[in-house]
Amino acid sequence: MNFASDNVTGASPEIIAAIAAANHGPAMPYGADEITRRLEQRFAEVFECEVAVFPVATGTAANTLALACLTPVYGAVYCHEEAHIATDECGAPEFFTGGAKLVTCSGEHGKLTPEILAPRIAGAGVVHNVQPAAISITQETEAGTVYRPAEIAALSALARQHTLALHMDGARFANAVAGLGCAPADLTWRAGVDALSFGATKNGALAAEAVLFFDPKRAESFGYRRKRAGHLLSKQRFVAAQLEAYLADDLWLRNARHANAMATRLASGLAALPGATLLHPVDGNEVFVALSERAIERLAAAGFGFYRWGEAPVIRLVTAFDTAAASVESFIGVVGETLGSVTKR
Ligand SMILES: Cc1ncc(COP(=O)(O)O)c(C=O)c1O
């Protein structure tokens, strides 16, 4: 019944079991444990390339510490105006980069394009200006849409042209991979992504994300930055255990496929109702829908959880690995009763 966020969920039983399994005997601290060592190999298999892997406990730490490796303190990081790094991280990117500037750009359905970015990338070599350093995109985006490999490659071509790094906030990376059905490599290094904040918490982990660098050279200062930021966990084995279980037997993709299927059903059910308008294509596990005030109030009174989005009668619905199909049907039913059950042609 709670569609407020994929953060409202608990954790997958497989993840809890992995934490319990890691809770036997001693293990070397600060990432020198066996599970962390295995993790690097596992990520290399999943991404089909050598990769530097740094587990952290929050997405904000992943994003900000990754960006800190990709920009000088006087750099500019280009991102969407609704990007989590710009709206929901309390200035952490600016703080941990030592003062780099986030340059925000608007773009339809949460996406950036080379056409939007190109005119904004300016000031290189001018002492008065921040120096273009990186582009950061979110996958899936804050509007619930997903960048296709060709769209990422186009952004990376622009990045290369200006010697910028390309960062991906993959808090919902699994939903993007599951939605597109393509290889993780196709959405990252093969399309020119340099660093990925690989999310797991929203999709079944308890508290586990990983920063991946596809060019280990770019990762040279990460270990020091993570420690300095207070994000190097002494008992890192418990974070690594979550990530290992997350990748095992494709749990991450199974969870994401379920979440996406629930969002697709919500979207199709709502789109068929008069007076319900989807604001963005539904590519992953988020649905943005404009309804009447009356319908929103009825839904709240019926006990559904969701966030209102902005001033207009718009709500955001997020599905997750444990969303029940019955909750989705019941949600559509309440909206249908309130708006009238005549379906659109
Ligand atoms: C797009 C995006 N990036 C990153 C995060 C990670 O944030 P947190 O620091 O809360 O784990 C979130 C969480 O809501 C998110 O939606």
Task: Sum this structure up briefly.
By secondary structure, the protein is of the alpha/beta class.
Question: Can you characterise this structure?
Answer:
This protein has 345 residues and is an alpha/beta fold. It contains 13 helices and 11 strands. It has a 7-stranded mixed sheet with strand order 1-7-6-5-4-2-3, sandwiched between helices. Strands 8-9-11-10 form a 4-stranded antiparallel sheet, covered by helices on one side. Strand 5, helix 8 (173-180) and strand 6 (195-199) form a beta-alpha-beta unit. Pyridoxal-5'-phosphate (PLP) binds next to helix 3.
Distance between the termini: 28 Å
Main sheet?
A: 7 strands, mixed
N-to-C order of helices and strands: HHEHEHHEHEHEHEEHHHEEHEEH
Proportion of beta-strand residues: 15-25%
Instruction: Please identify the structural class as seen in this structure.
Output: alpha/beta
Mean pLDDT: 96
Shape: globular
Which residues form runs of ≥5 with pLDDT under 50? none
How many helices?
Answer: 13
State the helicity in percent bands. 25-40%
Number of E strands = 11
- Widest beta sheet: strand line-up: 1-7-6-5-4-2-3
Ligands bound, unique: pyridoxal-5'-phosphate
Tell me the radius of gyration: 21 Å
Task: Produce the secondary structure layout.
Elements: H1 13-22, H2 34-47, E1 52-56, H3 59-70, E2 75-80, H4 84-87, H5 92-96, E3 101-105, H6 114-117, E4 131-138, H7 149-161, E5 165-170, H8 173-180, E6 195-199, E7 209-213, H9 222-228, H10 237-247, H11 251-271, E8 277-278, E9 286-290, H12 293-301, E10 307-308, E11 314-318, H13 325-339
Parallel strand pairs: 2-3, 2-4, 4-5, 5-6
Antiparallel strand pairs: 1-7, 6-7, 8-9, 9-11, 10-11
Helix pairs in contact: 1-10, 2-10, 8-11, 11-13, 12-13
Bound molecules: pyridoxal-5'-phosphate.
Pyridoxal-5'-phosphate is lined by residues 58-60, 63, 84, 138, 142, 169, 171, 201.
